[in-house]
């Protein structure tokens, strides 16, 4: 949360100082404890009630009639295919240390200037709360990621990509960023003891609510106290927490939107949307400025983003989470989207890419598209944007902690919301992608030349993912490791 850095625009500098002071005051007030390594032992309870576990996300492909996705008029709901077919759910990678001899922590390296106040340095009492989104726990699937550290211009792991942020800001200002693409923002879900029960007949989870149950809807403004996190009660799985999710494009966003919307229907839950960027539909003409109220609302929300709390969620406090995906897998999914899967309907680059590259085999097409994106830049289509930029953009370049999951854990996240058996889109299904060359395209179509191009376009994503213990094995050959990571 430094001022005057390339990460934050000058406009926000004053605000940041203000935020910082508030954060400190707030934090000291809340925790009354500044012991980061408080050594609290985590219990071994799993994040999920295992008896209640149901069919896996992957299984859904074979269902004759998957439940219909929830209707929504959200523009950013329908732009995904969450084709996870080639990726197996996985346990978190072992915290192995490689041997480069240089260590990086929390997306930083060799920071000489320690005067900067960083979210990652903020005192935080390790939380022992049982929640999938509590990355403090020994067995958690997530790690906290600090986008502002990553893009720190002096000692961030991603410092050589900082120019991309300036580009994004300029393009946003001159109306050339992601024309015709869906709006960008994040929803916040306040869950005040929402319970799910298994409908054994339909084999799906349903909201466990009696019509005579008093409604206990709460919003972002409320304090959540008592038993926060996930718990089981009378054979139901329940939770109380406040979560926001970042829609990283082509990494599970649509399914997560559906999951949020599903929970949002509960009488004990509320969704608040922070939709701050609506790309211009007239290239060259800047999009209308963000309405002041929405800007304040969103920045306040970002200022109140926190790691998973230890005791309770204060008013406005929420945990932001996101899932990121192996960029070589994601690129194929992005292609399917950019070249005409429904949801990118308005995009003008799709037909150009098709005409240029969809000839011959899937492997030929993949190589051609990789070269096209290398030569014309990933800005040509929202869905080609590197995930680190997607994340920083959606958090308005603010210094926030993000509970980061691997896309491989998407089934587990959806299972938390009782939506593991609801698959939004599947890119491998015939007709969904617009051409058989695309339908057939898979990671098997990569040869070394194509892989190298894609790994280099998405080098920043590879670096970020490695810093969180997520490996991108296909890129190892082309992107040597510069650091060992501690996380
Ligand atoms: C908008 O800004 C980008 C990034 O600086 C620049 O490359 C592009 O030429 C600009 N376009 C217009 C129409 O001004
Ligand atoms: C947290 O949210 C409140 C209420 O919207 C706001 O007044 C406050 O400024 C926010 N805190 C930070 C640090 O942004
Ligand atoms: C797609 O794959 C199927 C089966 O592997 C093959 O029969 C078909 O010819 C392929 N189509 C194209 C356009 O490559």
Structure at a glance:
The chain has one domain (10-36, 48-90, 102-486).
Task: Write up what this structure looks like.
The protein is an alpha/beta fold. The protein has one domain. It is 28% helix and 13% strand. The protein has helices at residues 10-31, 147-150, 162-173, 253-264, 292-303, 327-338, 349-357, 362-376, 387-394, 410-416, 436-439, 448-457, 459-467, and strands spanning 103-105, 143-145, 184-199, 204-207, 229-233, 236-245, 269-277, 319-324, 402-406, 484-486. Strands 2, 3, 4, 5, 6, 7, 8 and 9 form an eight-stranded mixed β-sheet that branches. The chain has a two-stranded parallel sheet with strand order 1-10. Helix 8 (362-376) runs parallel beside helix 12 (448-457). The radius of gyration is 22 Å and the shape is globular. It starts with 9 loop residues before the first helix and ends with a strand. Bound molecules: 2-acetamido-2-deoxy-beta-D-glucopyranose (3 copies). One 2-acetamido-2-deoxy-beta-D-glucopyranose (NAG) is lined by residues 19, 22-23, 300, 303-304, 316.
């Amino acid at each position: 949360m430094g001022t005057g850095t390339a990460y934050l625009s000058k406009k926000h500098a004053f605000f940041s100082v203000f935020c910082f002071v508030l954060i400190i005051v707030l934090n000291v007030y809340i925790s009354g404890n500044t012991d980061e390594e408080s050594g609290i032992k985590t219990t071994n309870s799993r994040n999920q009630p295992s008896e209640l576990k149901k069919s896996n996300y992957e299984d859904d492909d074979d269902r004759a009639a998957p439940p219909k996705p929830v209707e929504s008029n959200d523009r950013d709901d329908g732009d995904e295919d969450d084709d996870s077919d080639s990726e197996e759910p996985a346990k978190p990678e072992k915290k192995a240390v490689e041997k480069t001899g240089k260590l990086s922590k929390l997306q930083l390296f060799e920071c000489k200037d320690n005067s900067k106040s960083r979210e990652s340095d903020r005192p935080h009492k390790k939380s022992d709360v049982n929640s999938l989104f509590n990355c403090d726990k020994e067995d958690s699937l997530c790690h906290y990621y600090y986008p502002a550290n990553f893009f720190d211009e002096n000692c961030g792991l991603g410092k050589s990509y900082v120019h991309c942020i300036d580009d994004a800001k300029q393009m946003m200002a001159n109306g050339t960023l992601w024309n015709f693409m869906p709006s960008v923002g994040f929803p916040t879900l306040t869950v005040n003891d929402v319970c799910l029960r298994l409908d054994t007949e339909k084999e799906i989870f349903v909201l466990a609510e009696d019509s005579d149950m008093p409604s206990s809807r709460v919003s972002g403004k409320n304090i959540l106290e008592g038993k926060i996190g996930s718990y089981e009660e009378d054979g139901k799985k329940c939770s109380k927490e406040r979560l926001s999710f970042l829609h990283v494009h082509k990494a599970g966003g649509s399914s997560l939107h559906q999951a949020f919307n599903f929970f949002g229907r509960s009488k004990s839950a509320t969704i608040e949307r922070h939709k701050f960027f609506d790309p211009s539909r007239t290239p060259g003409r800047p999009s209308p400025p963000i309405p002041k109220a929405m800007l304040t609302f969103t920045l306040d929300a970002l200022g109140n983003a926190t790691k998973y709390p230890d005791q309770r969620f204060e008013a406005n406090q929420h945990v932001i989470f996101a899932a990121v995906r192996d960029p070589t897998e994601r690129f194929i999914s992005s292609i399917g989207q950019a070249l005409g899967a429904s949801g990118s309907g308005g995009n003008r680059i799709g037909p150009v890419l098709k005409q240029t590259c969809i000839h011959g085999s899937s492997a030929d097409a993949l190589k051609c598209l990789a070269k096209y994106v290398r030569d014309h830049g990933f800005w040509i289509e929202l869905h080609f944007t590197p995930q680190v930029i997607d994340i920083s953009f959606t958090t308005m370049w603010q210094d926030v902690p993000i509970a980061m999951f691997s896309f491989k854990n998407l089934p587990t996240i959806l299972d938390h919301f009782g939506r593991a058996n609801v698959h939004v889109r599947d890119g491998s299904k015939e007709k969904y992608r617009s051409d058989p060359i695309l339908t057939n395209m898979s990671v098997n179509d990569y040869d070394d030349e194509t892989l190298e191009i894609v790994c280099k376009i998405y080098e920043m994503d590879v670096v970020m993912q490695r810093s969180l213990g997520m490996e991108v094995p296909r890129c190892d050959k082309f992107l040597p490791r510069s650091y060992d990571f501690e996380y």
